[in-house]
Write a structure and sequence with these properties.
Largest sheet: none
Radius of gyration: 22 Å
Distance between the termini: 41 Å
């Protein structure tokens, strides 16, 4: 009898943990999409802050690139990676509170 109750409660405990992990994974993915879209609204071509960041990063990467176009592409990739990291960090904060 005790073994049956122990197995039942253990199954419920495992199921609850799995369901919570699945829910949090879905929640974080949705919040990351939201934050990525909201942050992306402020990063556009023609915006002076974006242009200044791309130019500065291109200048910094030019010495280790095969040309100006490659340095510009790498700069844009790095800025996109920064935005993804920021969106992920914000989604983690949303899940913590």
């Amino acid at each position: 009898m005790a073994l049956t109750f122990s197995a039942f409660f253990h199954t419920i405990r495992i199921f609850g943990g799995t369901a919570g992990a699945i829910y949090m994974g879905h929640f974080l993915a949705q919040r990351e999409k939201l934050h990525s879209n909201l942050l992306g609204l402020h990063v556009s071509a023609g915006n002076w802050i974006t242009d200044q960041n791309v130019h500065a990063m291109t200048a910094g990467l030019y010495a280790k690139s095969s040309g100006m176009a490659a340095a510009g592409g790498r700069a844009i990739d790095l800025i996109a990676a920064r935005l993804r990291l920021q969106a992920y960090s914000l989604s983690i904060l949303d899940g913590s509170y």
